[in-house]
Write a structure and sequence with these properties.
The chain is mainly alpha-helical. The protein has helices at about 1-10, 15-40, 45-55, 60-70, 75-85, 90-95, 100-130, 145-155, 175-200, 205-210, 220-225, 230-245, 250-255, 260-270, 275-295. Keywords: Membrane, Transmembrane, Transmembrane helix.
Length: about 300
């Protein structure tokens, strides 16, 4: 009973912070998505830069869009990887919701964006050299996307996220923020209950041993958790980091490999399985190595 009460109280404390963050995100998305997608498709070598900046916006919606755009050959592989790597899903809202973790928000964002740009440009350059031409083809030459075209590219996240635009009269920013807050709260509560139960059951030392705490190899384990195609992975990683059982390097590794439901959409939309596995491999290897580097330096 004490475990349950502690988990509930710890989770409830985050509610007002989460709601404010998601309210800002909902307003931002409803007013800017169309323009952002258009600029992303028109980007050439600046694609990885734009992809990294767009991807760092919380939620996995942009990774879903990136996967769909890539499958339609509207963006290059470097841009897609930049979006995937910089995507943090629910990690940033959760860190913001913990006042003692506010200083880490900027650190996580900067590390992921810089790494995303570096990998995106590197992969795009290699693709250019191997193929002999830029691997970015515009599906059409129109200068603007209609609402129906945006909806088609967005597709379905599959994780309960509904990415609407201001043109949709039925869209309610407040209800979207409330819905997302409740959903994240339930995930956090579940994670806290499980973590508290495991720590109480097996002990902190055994838990630290299982998670390879203080080991340079912990990022490899976190990278596997990050590959779980659901917002639960980012919540698990962030809550473990806040609890002190996961290092910064491991958190970065897990968040770099995690692209939310974007990976599922990629495998569903892009019929080239080898290409999909290549992207998955690059994500895991580069994210894990980057996390190990941070682990070693710290």
């Amino acid at each position: 009973m004490d475990l349950i009460i502690d988990a509930v109280l710890d989770s409830i404390k985050l509610l007002p912070f989460l709601f404010l963050v998601y309210l800002v995100i909902a307003y931002f998305e409803s007013n800017t998505e169309n323009k952002l997608y258009q600029k992303l498709m028109n980007a050439k070598w600046s694609g990885p830069f734009m992809g990294a900046l767009i991807g760092c916006v919380p939620q996995c919606g942009f990774s879903v869009v990136g996967a769909n755009l890539y499958s339609k050959k509207m963006i290059g592989i470097g841009t897609l990887l930049a979006i995937f790597i910089s995507t943090s899903d629910e990690a940033i809202p959760i860190l913001i919701a913990h006042p003692n973790m506010l200083g880490m928000v900027g650190v996580v964002l900067v590390l992921k964006v810089v790494f995303a740009i570096a990998i995106g440009l590197a992969v795009e350059s290699i693709s250019y050299i191997l193929v002999g031409k830029k691997v970015v083809k515009m599906a059409n030459a129109t200068e603007s996307m209609t609402y129906s075209e945006v909806e088609m590219v967005q597709g379905s996240c599959g994780c309960g996220h509904h990415h609407h635009h201001i043109e949709d009269k039925s869209f309610n920013i407040w209800m979207e923020a409330f819905r997302h807050t409740v959903k994240t709260f339930l995930f956090i509560l579940a994670v806290n209950l499980v973590l508290n139960g495991i720590i109480e059951g097996v002990g902190e030392e055994a838990m630290a041993s299982i998670l390879l705490t203080d080991s340079v190899f912990q990022p490899a384990l976190a990278g596997l958790i990050g590959l779980i195609p659901n917002c639960a992975s980012s919540i698990i990683l962030t809550e473990m980091f806040v609890a002190g059982t996961l290092s910064l390097g491991s958190l970065i590794a897990g968040l770099c490999t995690g692209a939310g439901i974007g990976l599922v959409v990629l495998f569903k939309s892009n019929k080239n399985i080898i290409d999909n596995l290549k992207i998955l491999g690059i994500l895991y290897v580069t994210g894990t190595v980057f996390g190990m580097m941070i682990q070693f330096i710290r």
